[in-house]
Amino acid sequence: MSRGYLEDLQVYAIRRELGVQYFKFFSDIETVPWWDVEELHDRHLWDYIKQQAKARFPDWKPQFPKQIVTIFESGDKDITLDIKPSRCLKNMPLRAMEQDFYEEFQGWLYNESTAEPVISLFD
Predict the structure, then answer these.
(1) 11-53 tens-digit pLDDT
(2) How many independent structural domains does the chain possess?
(3) Does the pTM of the predicted model rise above 0.85?
(4) In the β-sheet with 2-6, what is the strand arrangement from edge to edge?
(5) What is the 8-class DSSP label of residue 63?
(6) Is 21 inside any structural domain?
(7) Which one of 5, 43, 71, 123 is at 20 to 30 Å from 91 when CA atoms are compared?
């Protein structure tokens, strides 16, 4: 799991298995499950998180899931963990893209077949 602070966008980013989550405020990182928070350690800001994880989170509490226990007639137990969704940003912040990198640049087009942006140039 990669993580860091993007100064130009002013967001915290955490790359996960299924994509990237962006958090506007540091306190929003508390809304991720505790096992994800324990994996976040690196440099200054992330050292604080690592220190909190080692000390069992004395200053702030990440989400600990509720256990829902179902007991079947056979006596077997089924334990389900109920986790609330994280408070991450719904829309990804975008960096400003340079528009005058080539003198024949006309604009950007959207290619529906590949779902990618395409550069349009003057003939």
Answers:
(1) 888 877 777 888 888 778 777 777 776 666 555 666 777 788 8
(2) 1
(3) no
(4) 2-6, 11-16, 19-23
(5) B
(6) yes
(7) 43
